[in-house]
């Protein structure tokens, strides 16, 4: 299969901190790939290596067949990066930022202006086009930030925690854009701390923990790692009373139901039982042996 | 953060429909430089406060030195002729310090890292800041010279000597700007960059800018005599007035080129080293 991103045995150390400890990634072209992990797991360092900003101490990485260390120029012609903090020019207006990036991406002055108008409309920023970035809200900056990466179409798009700090509406809007990018044929590589985001958006997910990929696959494959369905018991208000894992067999399900009978809670008026697939939270807990609560300060 | 319960739609793995997008086009020879110079000009024009300050401060200093201290320093009233070259350099240095803050800002926001992931000479962003600083400071210098003429500065320079003054001032601005650009790269924050700039601004006081070196305490004289600003000031003074132009001009040229070379090497090293590390 044609790989958009092919990383093998990446290691990186900053001072005393082992940030990456042998990271492997294989991302097929034209897919959305999510790198999921807590703060400090090495997500940003991975992106920095794949986008040629930082050299790995060991290992190799290829973007669309081009080595990030040996041939960074070829890699740069094929990628765009939207970093974690909105890397925009605060003094310029939204339109000026877009025109600048358009010009730097090889568009003519007129072509860059036309493209800027298109993107401003697409990201619902037309009204703010003439305002300096310094006056934008967080959601608006993030949208412009993403728009800057899209002034020209590139095969591989990197998004470092694209929805961190966004409200629900902006987040869903961004998800819609990301899906449309992949539908256009681009490979989208994104990092996230949100299990829900990886689950909803990504074709494949890699779980990163302490600088290594500890599991990789589709959301369903990862969920299968923790076994079968979970039987939930909720009271009339919908609050969770009990969660009983099953192994996916009829026998296991029957055992869970018998277990329910023994629970006093099951006889509460209005209580209801339902069966759900395991969530990525369950996966994360299973794989890393701990909750996904931020463990370390993100070190780059 | 709660995970989704019973998520319905997980997209299937595998490539999607649609043709793969093309590559980024290659840029014309100096496109990146042109774009970044334009950007830095826009920054300069929008930062009206800094621009005003960069012109006002040297003008105020000049008025203060000529009207308040002038007669005490030199009762003959010719002090204005002595001090204007010093004020010109002070002005150039003061204005160039803003470059450190601009560069440090670009590093802090991460916009430079973004440029680095594009197939352009990312160092061109520094070229933009340097060129904008040069133009800004030449303009401020022109204003200072005009005000100087208004308060009685009477240079005896020929057109050729004026050209020489322009060249020396431009070279000095470039040297200081390169140095401040490197300081901006080295500084951890834009605020720190601003602070470092302040230290360098005291150098003109320990030179022949405001008073002749031989009026200073003996231990300070060698420092004032041999620091880079003194030969630059003496060169401008010689060109503007009737004073003889001696070896000072070569020293000025040498110092400026040495500072540019050192700042460029240091800056290039910092620029490479700080990739991806904000």
> For the terminal residues of chain A, how far apart are their CA atoms?
31 Å
Structural class of chain A: alpha/beta
Termini gap of chain B: 27 Å
Structural class estimated from helices and strands of chain B:
mainly alpha
Number of strands of chain B: 0
Average pLDDT reading of chain A:
85
Transmembrane segments (chain B): 51-70, 82-104, 125-150, 162-183, 195-213, 249-271
Region (Disordered) (chain B): 1-20
GO biological process, one term (chain B): response to antibiotic
Protein name (chain B): Transport permease protein
Model description:
The complex is a heterodimer of chains A (300) and B (278). Chain A is α/β, with parallel strands linked by helices and 300 residues long. Chain A has two domains: 222 residues, 3-Layer(aba) Sandwich (Rossmann fold), CATH 3.40.50.300; 51 residues, no CATH class. Helix content of chain A is 34%, strand content 27%. Chain A is globular and about 75 Å long. Chain A starts with a strand and ends in a 12-residue tail after the last helix. With 278 residues, chain B is mainly alpha-helical. Chain A: Its main location: membrane. Chain A: This is Daunorubicin resistance ABC transporter ATP-binding subunit. Chain A: InterPro entries: AAA+_ATPase (IPR003593), ABC_transporter-like_ATP-bd (IPR003439), ABC_transporter-like_CS (IPR017871), ABC_transporter_ATP-binding (IPR050763), DrrA (IPR005894), P-loop_NTPase (IPR027417). Chain A: It is found in: Cell membrane.
């Amino acid at each position: 299969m044609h790989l958009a991103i092919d990383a093998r045995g990446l290691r990186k150390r900053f001072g005393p901190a082992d940030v990456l400890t042998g990271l492997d990634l294989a991302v097929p072209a034209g897919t959305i790939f999510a790198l999921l992990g807590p703060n400090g797991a090495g997500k940003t360092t991975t992106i920095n290596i794949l986008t040629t900003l930082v050299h790995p101490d060991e290992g190799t990485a290829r973007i669309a067949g081009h080595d990030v260390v040996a041939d960074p120029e070829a890699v740069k012609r094929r990628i765009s990066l939207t970093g974690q903090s909105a890397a925009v020019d605060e003094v310029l207006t939204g339109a000026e930022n877009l025109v600048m990036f358009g010009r730097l991406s090889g568009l003519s002055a007129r072509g860059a202006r036309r493209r800027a108008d298109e993107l401003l409309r697409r990201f619902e920023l037309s009204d703010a086009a003439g305002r300096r970035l310094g006056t934008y809200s967080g959601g608006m900056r993030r949208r412009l930030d993403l728009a800057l990466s899209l002034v020209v179409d590139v095969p591989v798009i990197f998004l470092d925690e694209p929805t961190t700090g966004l409200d629900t509406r902006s987040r869903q809007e961004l998800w819609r854009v990301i899906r449309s990018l992949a539908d256009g044929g681009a490979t989208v590589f994104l990092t996230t701390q949100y299990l829900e985001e990886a689950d909803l958006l990504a074709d494949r997910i890699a779980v990163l923990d302490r600088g290594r990929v500890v599991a990789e696959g589709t959301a369903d494959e990862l969920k299968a790692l923790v076994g079968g369905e979970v039987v939930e018991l909720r009271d009339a208000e919908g609050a969770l009373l009990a969660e009983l894992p099953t192994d996916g067999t009829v026998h296991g399900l029957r055992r869970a139901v018998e277990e329910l009978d023994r629970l006093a809670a099951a006889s509460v008026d209005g209580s209801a039982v339902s069966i759900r697939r395991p969530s990525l939270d369950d996966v994360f807990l299973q794989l890393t042996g701990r909750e996904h609560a931020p463990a370390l300060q993100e070190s780059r | 953060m709660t995970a989704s319960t019973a998520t319905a739609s997980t997209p299937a793995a595998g490539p999607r429909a649609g043709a793969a997008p093309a590559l980024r086009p290659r840029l014309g020879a100096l496109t990146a430089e042109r774009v970044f110079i334009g950007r830095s000009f826009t920054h300069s024009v929008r930062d009206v406060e800094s621009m005003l300050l960069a012109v006002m401060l040297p003008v105020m200093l000049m008025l203060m030195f000529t009207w308040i201290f002038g007669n005490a320093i030199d009762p003959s009233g010719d002090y204005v002729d002595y001090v204007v070259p010093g004020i010109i350099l002070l002005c150039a240095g003061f204005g160039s310090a803003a470059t450190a803050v601009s560069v440090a800002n670009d590093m802090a926001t991460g916009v430079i890292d973004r440029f680095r992931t594009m197939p352009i000479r990312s160092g061109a962003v520094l070229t933009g800041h340097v060129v904008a600083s040069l133009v800004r400071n030449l303009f401020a210098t022109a204003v200072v010279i005009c005000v100087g003429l208004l308060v009685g500065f009477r240079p005896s320079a020929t057109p050729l000597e004026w050209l020489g003054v322009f060249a020396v001032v431009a070279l000095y601005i470039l040297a200081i700007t390169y140095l401040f650009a490197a300081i901006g790269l080295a500084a951890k924050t834009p605020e720190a960059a601003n602070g470092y700039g302040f230290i360098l601004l005291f150098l003109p006081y320990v030179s022949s800018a405001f008073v002749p070196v031989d009026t200073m305490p003996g231990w300070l004289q060698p420092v004032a005599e041999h620091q880079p600003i003194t030969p630059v000031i003496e060169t401008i003074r010689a060109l503007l007035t009737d004073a003889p132009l001696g070896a000072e001009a070569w020293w000025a040229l040498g110092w400026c080129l040495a500072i540019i070379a050192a700042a460029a090497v240091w800056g290039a090293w910092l620029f490479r080293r700080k990739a991806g590390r904000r």
